[in-house]
Amino acid sequence: MKDLLFSQFTLGRITLKNRIVMAPMTRSRAINNTPNALMAEYYQQRAGAGLLITEGTSPSPNGLGYSRIPGLYTADQAAGWRSVTDAVHAQGGAMFVQLMHTGRVSHPLNLPAGAKLFAPSAIGLTGTMWTDQEQMQPYPVPAAMTFSEIQDTIDEFVASARLAVEAGFDGVELHAANGYLIEQFINPSANQRTDQYGGSAENRIRFALEIVQKAAAAIGADRIGIRVSPYGASNDMGAYDGIEETYALLAEKLNALGIVYMHVVDHSAMGAPAVSPSVKALIRENFKGTIILSGGYDAQKAEQDLQDHKGELVAFGRAFISNPNLVDKIAQHAALNAPDMSTF
Ligand SMILES: Cc1cc2nc3c(=O)[nH]c(=O)nc-3n(C[C@H](O)[C@H](O)[C@H](O)COP(=O)(O)O)c2cc1C
Fold first, then answer.
1. Can you identify the CATH homologous superfamily of domain 9-343?
2. Which of 235, 261, 281, 300 sits a CA distance of 20 to 30 A from 228?
3. Taking 90 as the threshold, does the pLDDT of residue 343 lie above it?
4. Residue among 339, 103, 338 nearest 234 (CA)
């Protein structure tokens, strides 16, 4: 049996040296929301992965809901990212930037002056979030986005995708998972709009599809991936009537648009609700491009799921934080360092 994890893979325009992906992980080290030398070093150390996906990066000042997360909408931020992509490419790695707009997962203290805290509907999250100024604070109720704010936000994603290419990224991953803005549109618990962006599944996935369509026209569909988390419970998401049909339709439409991958999150190994095998099968059936598997993988399970054709690439998250040389360690069957959650 041929070992798949260490075989090359063609992803759109690029060839990955192996099937191991570094999962997107927020590290909150981007002072002034701009990538820095520490971040370049961090990613360079992990460039053994066939594909690195950056931490969630906002395409807009309005999407910087957490403290010290990076953005990608100014020339300075693009220059900072250029030093990261150069460092990774120098090691033979490839890199996509994850575009994450936090939407309602946000606090005014974390946002730059003048930024808007908005979401599909004026429905606040339960619980609290970190702010550097006043520590834990309750989530505020977001403003409901106007039609023109939706159009402006789509344009911001597209401008950020263009900037990503200028900054040397091999592509962009749209973060439509874990309860951030794009999933706030998809999930009816956060989206109670009565216009063409709310209601039916077709309407709730429209925001995602319009971003994909316009970004594909700008940089090419073969440089666009998307991350989804059906059944995920992060940030007050969760299951709803019609969830399987929603993701089946999304996969079908994304397939027609020709994007290069769908990255499917399953956090059940971290105590999150199970992701139904049927929704995974529907995505696999309707989307003919590359599938990236993620959540709770070790080398053995990764190899098995590749052999079973559940996907073409496998993302590893926490193991990469505590093991920068994870890929070498897997190749050598070496023991891994346990993650130290206090550093996350
Ligand atoms: C510290 C930390 C930060 C994370 N930040 C992000 C993020 O910015 N975007 C995202 O899509 N997922 C994020 N995740 C989820 C990971 O990408 C991944 O799905 C999760 O860790 C499960 O994979 P694992 O079992 O291999 O760690 C984060 C996870 C951790 C532990």
1. Aldolase class I (3.20.20.70)
2. 300
3. no
4. 103
